[in-house]
Each structure stands twice: as structure tokens, then as C-alpha cells.
Write the C-alpha cells for this entry.
Amino acid sequence: MNYPRPIEDLISSFMRLPGIGRKTAERLALYAYSNMSEDEAKQFGQNFINLKKNLHTCPICGNLTEKSTCDICSDSTRNHSQIMVVETVKDLFIMENLGQFKGVYHVLNGAIDFTNGIGVEDIRIAPLLERVKEGNISEVILACNATLQGETTSRYIKTLLEDSDCLVTRLAHGLPIGGDLSYADEMTVLKALEGRIKY
Amino acid sequence: MNYPRPIEDLISSFMRLPGIGRKTAERLALYAYSNMSEDEAKQFGQNFINLKKNLHTCPICGNLTEKSTCDICSDSTRNHSQIMVVETVKDLFIMENLGQFKGVYHVLNGAIDFTNGIGVEDIRIAPLLERVKEGNISEVILACNATLQGETTSRYIKTLLEDSDCLVTRLAHGLPIGGDLSYADEMTVLKALEGRIKY
């Protein structure tokens, strides 16, 4: 026996989201039915519909925006000669919320991952090269994840930029703040040792 | 810095759901943007809007339905003299999917929980008494959860039905199937011992 159609429909929709299986989807759909007002449910639905209608990626950096170019790319007070390369829009927001970086970004929309069939052409590497080739770029900061995929991507981009005259840097690896040596994996400790600085 | 409005709106909507905090909501909203087609997002939204529009509770048992009475209450092949009392629609579906019970249901929509201000009047106890008073009910099976709230509710209903001539039963407590004695809590083992049957 299945739930009534409107509930089943919503369950299927929830199951399309990552990390949400049948049981969780049932719980969420039933909760939405019992605990949300009709207006709230309508609003939720409308928000979903607006999502793809009003939003697109910035043609320069790949950030999400409702305007023709994103707020960061159109901000003249930022340093447009310094590009931080991140894998996802989420990473961009993590960096941005630190409030420290005043350059601009380049969102790759993923990382090279040959085992899952994601190659060089599948992520936004070519537009990055275009931006560097256009000139006036002094530094490219590689802020990919410290994973196999992220490292592969960083190395590949570094190789491509070897002939350009801009500085290519990457984020430091090491012990996380508040991290206990005994909890860190060997590779992290090794990187922390390699990257040690004068105290 | 916040995400663009359509993403922030969807994040707020997701955060209204139980067990979904800001981080998960961000992940889901960004996933929905990147991995769903416009049609899919529209469908998800429409499903939410339909939820409250097309669905209501069965006036007899409290189950969810799109019709005037639910499929179970309008099924003449079922035993309408046997009512199983459950706390939620979800519990009804759990029972129904066992395929064993051929009576009808009564959904309480919660359980008595004085610490959270849920009293006798807040759940569907009165309509249950009405159904019993109308007659032709031979058995009321209390299938509330084996929690303090569920037990309180069961006991309260049992007291109310003491003067009626219908049989009041409750689900058995005991070791879960496949359960190891050493993993069961003391109360469960105690109930299993109390409820032991001839082998």
C-alpha cells in the first residue's frame, strides 16, 4: 500500500536529493503535510520553481547570480588581478565568508576525476586559461580540495600555467587548528612537517 | 555574504524541515540547482504546492486521503468492528504494509505528552470514543508507541473504554526479532519475561 498520490509525489521528489532515502523522504513529506501551513508549502514549492528560473552562473567566474555578472566580478574595489580557483560555488562562499580575500574567483564546477569519467573538458579550465591569457593577472591561487581529484586538478592547472608570467600558489596543508596530532592522518602530519615554518 | 536570493529562499524552506540545519540546507539547495533540470525543479515545487491542496484527513479514521473517506474506511471487505489505534499516519502505513491486519484504523495524530503541553484534547481521542459509542465495535487494539507518551495515551484510552463492552488489547512488548539479550534494555527484557508464553 502506498501513500496518497500527493505524498508519494513529494516522497519521490525528496528522494532525488543526495543522502535522502525512502525513509527520510517519507518522514519529510509527512512532516511537511502535518506541520506546514498551506502558505508555507506553497512558498516552498514556489522557491523550487524560482530556483532555475531566476538564477544562472556568472559568465566570468562561474559564481551563481541573478544579474548579468556576479556581485564579486562587478565590484571594482576588489583586486581583479588575483584569481582564486575553487571547485564549487559552495567553496567560493566558504572563502568569501572568511572576509579575508579581496581578489576574484574562478569556479571550476568540479574536479578532474578520471575514475568517474570527469575529464579536463568537463570542468571550467579553458575559461580560466582565457582569463589568464587576456593578461593583467598577477596571481592564481589554487584552492582545490586536498583530495586526489583536487590535487590532480591543481597539478594540471599548474602545468598549463607554467609558461604564463603569473604566480601560481596553492593553499597550505597542515594540522587543522584545534586538531590533535594523534587524530590527524599520517599524510596530514607529513605535509605539516614538510611545510614547517620558522617560529 | 549570502547566496543569491533564490538559493537563500530555498535554504530557508529546507531549514523548516526536521533534522535539516543550515549546512544541510545549503548542500541540498546547491545540489538542486546544479543537478536538477528546470523541469525537475518545477515538478518538485508543484508537488509541494499540491500537497496541501489535494490532500486532507479522512473524517472517520484520520488517515490521509484525496477522497471523501479513505480507501481503508470505504473498503467493505475489511472488518469494521476492529479498530487499531495508532499515533500517526506513518504508523498506520507501517501496520498496513505488514499485510496482516484486516480491520480499520484510528489515527490519534500524536500522543498525550504533558511535558510538551499536549493534552487529551489535542489528539483525536474524542472521535475514537464516538466511534465506539456508535456501537458495532468488538475490539480496540492499542498500537501506540512503547514510550512514556504512548503508554500514557494507551492507559488513558483503556480507562475511558472500561465501561464499554468492547475488548481492549495492546501490542505485545518483548525482545525484537533478531535482537540479542545483551543489547536489549532492562525494561524490554523485563517486559519480555512478564509476557512469556508457553513454548
Summary: Chain B touches chain A through 51 residues (CB under 8 Å). Chain B has two domains: 5-54, 64-170. The mean pLDDT of chain B is 89.
